[in-house]
What does this fold into?
Amino acid sequence: MGKIFKSLLLLIFIGPVYTFADEAELNEIFTPIIEEMMVENDIQGFVFSVVSSDGALFKKTYGIKNMYTEEPETNASLFHMASVTKTFVGTALMQLHDQGKLDVDKPVVDVVPYFRLVDNRYKDLTIRQFASHVSGMPDFDSNPWHNPQYDEGALERFVRDFISHKFLTHEPETVIQYCNTGYELLGDVIAKASGISFEDYVRENILIPAGMMNSTLLIQEADMTNLNSLHSPQSGELRVADVYPYNRMHGPSSTLISNIDDMARWVQLNLNGGSLDGNRILKKEILDQMWQPAFGKFDEVGFSWQRRMQGDVETIFHGGNDGFRAYIIMIPEHDIGFVWMSNTAGQPYHDFSIKIADKLIDYRKK
It folds into this structure.
């Protein structure tokens, strides 16, 4: 079956499920908030979807892909997802754990023998500690987007070169310290445990089974005609950035490229207990475990996901921030969530997302 024919079948069977009544009400609730935020923060392009386990309830695009060409955003517009990528890393790790190819509660060195620190505590650091940001590993200061590396050895090379001379900054399991570096290591754990590259594993075992046919971890595979431009303040003026934030050294922490249709499917899959269109990506009991407080005591983090109480309602979320902005919040007890992406740096994305979540909780409680 040809790739184009497969894509047509997906379009036939994977369609929006929202009703006109849902769409009208959700548009009335959220579009004024979004448009006000865009004006206040000079946001050029923004896409948004409200999702349940049944599919998209509302989906809309706002603004433009590039301030110079003024090409409008569409559902096909591609965004850099930044740290939202980490939720795919966590899912991949739990798949491999379930298959017996690794144990997330065993030391990383069991899978990646080259892993070393000058701090001898490295020998006992577990996959789960890294996935929950409680390993004590220091993070890197900046991403070298201007000097990207695209070869398959880039990830292991970064882990070897950056990590080997480091000390832990905290005793493991005592402090939450957000750590991109740990996720680069976890990406190579996935590669070593599966026997294929990190990017290939995620594509074959998550993206394709989930029907996320326009998403990729390799920029060379992206449809460049749909790629958003990154807008950022430079010398006090908003401009199109001269470098796209992509580097294969940092694939696991931040380089997924996706669109609103695909990311709505990701939210739906998670709200639906790890299954979508008859494809089981992850067992529901494993997904539920990923959303629990890490080590039974860190209420703010789970396994690759973050957690927050919004009033008396528990939310599961993750944001991404590297010029491009992205955010997912899920409210499992109300079977609803949302995802949004933006092509402009500088917006207050945490506060804005909390405001959206409050409105969504009110909508669902009616």
The mean pLDDT is 92. The radius of gyration is 20 Å.
